[in-house]
Write a structure and sequence with these properties.
Blueprint lengths: L5 E11 L5 E7 L2 E3 L3 E3 L3 E7 L1 H6 L1 E13 L5 E6 L4 E6 L5 E11 L2 E4 L5 E3 L4
Parallel strand pairs: 1-5, 4-11
Antiparallel strand pairs: 1-2, 2-3, 5-8, 6-9, 7-8, 9-10, 9-11
């Protein structure tokens, strides 16, 4: 990871609902947030599963990043850390646009996906 990047740390909680759907909740500084946002500089979003989620057996397996508006999905890459306990999403912020960011996780051999915490790249000004 580049030391000049802005780093944003998120904690992620995952709960299964009665229909066996995974519900992702994101926290920054112990406050619930969307997990997405607007980026104006090179940024690394570090998403770490909380202890309760890890205890259930959830681990990150990857991320799916697609263009929603504009052409900036190529600015993003994902990297699994700590054997799936966290994932880093880096964004070079070279192009304007909005992406869909879907987290892929697994729990006890079953795959789940997050809803889209949308990320928007904007000019630095």
């Amino acid at each position: 990871m580049d030391n000049t990047q802005e780093q944003i740390h998120f904690t992620v909680n995952i709960e299964l609902d009665s229909n066996d759907n995974a519900n992702f909740t994101y926290f920054k500084d112990n406050k619930e947030v969307s997990g997405g946002g607007v980026v104006r500089t090179e940024t690394a979003g570090i998403y770490s599963l909380n202890e309760a989620t890890l205890a259930k057996g959830f681990l990150f397996t990857g991320a799916t990043i697609t263009d929603k508006e504009g052409d900036c999905a190529g600015d993003f890459k994902s990297e699994i850390n700590d054997d799936g306990q966290s994932i880093t999403i880096t964004d070079t912020d070279e192009n304007n646009g909005t992406v869909c960011l879907i987290f892929n996780v697994e729990c006890n051999g079953k795959a789940y996906e997050s809803a889209d915490p949308q990320i928007e790249n904007k000019d630095k000004n």
